[in-house]
Write a structure and sequence with these properties.
It comes from Haloferax sulfurifontis ATCC BAA-897. Pfam families: DUF7964 (PF25912). This is DUF7964 domain-containing protein. This protein is globular. It is of the alpha+beta class and about 100 residues long. It has a four-stranded antiparallel beta sheet. The termini are far apart. It has one domain.
Length: about 100
């Protein structure tokens, strides 16, 4: 089952995000939003970070994937994926 297939067909509630963080499949799962149901998520393992976003008409999609290797640290992958998700959602710093 893929990452996207494992998510419910709607934004995640805070308790669901907590459950994902307890799962052995991921080292870290965080919402990009500060409050309300999570429509944008960052997933991290030892090998990669993925930015995932939910749209009402299309469901969940992977927006960005960053491989973690000797040259890319997790924090860099998280920042890259967060920027990609914000850009995808149109929430970037466009002034």
């Amino acid at each position: 089952m893929s990452l996207i297939e494992s998510l419910p067909p709607r934004p995640l509630e805070p308790q669901e995000l907590t459950s994902l963080n307890r799962a052995d499949a991921f080292d870290l799962v965080v919402a990009v939003e500060d409050d309300g149901p999570a429509r944008s998520l960052l997933f991290a393992t030892d090998a990669w970070v993925k930015g995932v976003a939910y749209e009402d008409d299309a469901g969940w999609s992977v927006v960005e994937t960053v491989a973690l290797d000797g040259e890319t640290e997790r924090i860099d992958g998280l920042q890259t994926c967060e920027e990609a998700v914000l850009s995808f959602r149109g929430d970037g710093n466009e002034e």
